[in-house]
Structure to design on (368 residues):
């Protein structure tokens, strides 16, 4: 896939009182945006890979009130020769992760205090046109990204819907994710046995395509990351984890894919044991949150647009479940489905409605 960026983006920063601070050229990680378009194409068309001639382009969508050069969203348009075209839009919150770096020079100059809130808006300006290539001088190297075809199985979405029950709020733009009841039981067992440490596993399974064309996921197993490094507040995967999971997948021989991961927040163990139960119940640590470390793990290890993260939060009131995945280039909370193989369903499972994402204030809110 060739990518094109005919515009450069600039972040304008303002103090909370509206005073302008200045402009910073945006250095964005565009990969989640490209990946959003790639996966939109796999969902839209009966294909398993993005062909070599595909061209993706970023286009500013002008702000409805302010007009050009201010940006209300960024469109990612992907053209697949002989197949068709898809486009999706990433919101300006996409730039939030860059805002910290953008504010650093203003903090350095004393114009902003460290940790002070500020506002930003994004503007886009056309890049100068590329000089026409001299046909006599061919480029010495042409780099073409070759994408691996996604193994997709045929299955009936209706059949999965009938054997499952929904957990959490469902967003129609997300692909359905079915997690087997057995996987949920295993994660809960591991969560209870974790003894106040974070624990994590890799989620594996299949990508299915319904005869109607829609893609959906089936999480068939969780492979415990025995070699993942678990401390009280952090989990990290290392090369041993990859080896162990690849080996386990080969032994299972079912051609399962890496669909994501789950991890535990042992919140009961994080909260101050001296606090009264009613205080502990109000502790922000007892709520679900996907920390900035969690976002980093997801971005680095599970960058595919369909890959999910299940979070179990062990609270005084019991285990709570929340799922996160990519939507329009951002990590968001989403619903999922529990699948029972024998038809009988009893997911006594508590979804957490509103987790915070990428914001670590909660972690600092209550310290021992
Ligand atoms: Zn975490």
């Amino acid at each position: 896939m060739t990518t094109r960026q005919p515009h450069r983006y600039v972040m304008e920063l303002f103090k909370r009182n509206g005073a302008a601070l200045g402009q910073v050229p945006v250095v964005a990680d565009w990969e989640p945006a490209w990946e959003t378009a790639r996966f939109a194409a796999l969902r839209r068309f009966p294909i398993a890979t993005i062909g070599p001639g595909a061209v993706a382009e970023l286009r500013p969508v002008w702000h409805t009130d302010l007009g050009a050069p201010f940006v209300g969203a960024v469109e990612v348009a992907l053209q697949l020769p002989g197949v068709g075209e898809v486009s999706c839009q990433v919101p300006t919150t996409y730039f939030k992760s860059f805002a910290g770096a953008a504010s650093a020079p203003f903090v350095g100059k004393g114009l902003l205090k460290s940790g002070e809130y500020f506002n930003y808006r994004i503007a886009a300006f056309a890049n100068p046109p590329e000089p026409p290539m001299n046909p006599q001088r061919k480029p010495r190297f042409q780099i073409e990204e070759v994408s691996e075809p996604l193994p997709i199985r045929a299955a009936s979405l209706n059949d999965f819907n009938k054997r499952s029950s929904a957990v959490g709020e469902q967003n129609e733009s997300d692909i359905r994710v079915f997690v087997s009841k057995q996987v949920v039981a295993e994660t809960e067992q591991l969560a209870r046995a974790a003894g106040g440490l974070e624990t994590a596993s890799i989620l594996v399974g299949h990508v299915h395509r319904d005869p109607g064309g829609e893609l959906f996921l089936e999480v068939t197993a969780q492979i415990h990351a025995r070699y993942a490094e678990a401390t009280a507040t952090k989990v990290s995967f290392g090369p041993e984890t990859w080896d162990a999971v690849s080996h386990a997948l080969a032994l299972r021989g079912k051609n399962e894919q890496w669909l994501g991961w789950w991890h535990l927040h042992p919140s009961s163990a994080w909260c101050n044991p001296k606090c009264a139960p009613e205080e502990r119940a109000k502790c922000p640590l007892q709520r679900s949150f996907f920390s900035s470390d969690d976002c980093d793990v997801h971005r680095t290890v599970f960058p595919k647009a369909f890959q999910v993260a299940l979070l179990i939060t062990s609270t005084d009131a019991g285990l709570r479940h929340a799922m996160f995945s990519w939507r329009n280039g951002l990590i968001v909370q989403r619903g999922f489905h529990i699948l029972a193989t024998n038809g009988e369903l009893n997911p006594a499972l508590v979804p957490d409605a509103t987790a915070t994402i990428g914001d670590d204030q909660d972690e600092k809110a209550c310290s021992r």
